[in-house]
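[agent] plan:
  1. take the single chain provided in the ticket
  2. run structure prediction with default settings
  3. attach structure tokens to the ticket
  4. add a short note for the reviewer (M.T.)
[agent] executing step 1
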Amino acid sequence: MVGSVADRTREALLRLGERGKEVLKVALDVAESRADPQLGDFDYRTIAERCREMGLGDPKMILRVLERDFGVLETSYHSYNQHWWKFVDAEQIREALGEEEVDPEVQLIRIQFDSLDVSGLEKRLRFMLTKPTLTESDKRAFREMAFDVLPSLTELYRRASAREETANLTLDIGRVMALASQVSRRIAGRRKESTELKEPTRDEPQRLTQG
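[agent] step 2 finished; step 3 output follows
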């Protein structure tokens, strides 16, 4: 099985939905009161009765999927009239069940923030500011950043600042934009100096001489 028990539990909940979540909760509750050190954490008969009382129906298929497809349960004892399971890691399952559902837009903002490598951008800009002279390669790299990356970063700033869960990301984005402004001013200043140095001086008007 790939991933941690908590990750596999999250995947199982996405597939099985609310009913799968409730069955897992029932199994954990039963385990707290009925776990047998020799047989396992919970048995089918007890959990089936509890699920029927709650209107969840027969949990047999859900338990089978949790065991065979996601590996968060394993059979600990099986006879002709009993079936017991144990949790592979009950704490990780509780962790996954206790998490609040995350807004997909919040997830997208965080994914895009990570994909832009904001910390890497900050390091590159700081390095440019420490150089005595920016090369043409530096200027070209900065120009690409300004047109290809920074527009996405400013849009991300707008969306992140509108949500409490992602507001902290705006601090990192703000630092990058401030550094980019410094690099931009430095390039513009050097360009202005270069232009002034190359500008030809005007000759003074020649004086007329009397013949």
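[agent] step 4 note for reviewer: Residues 5-98 form one domain.
[agent] ticket updated
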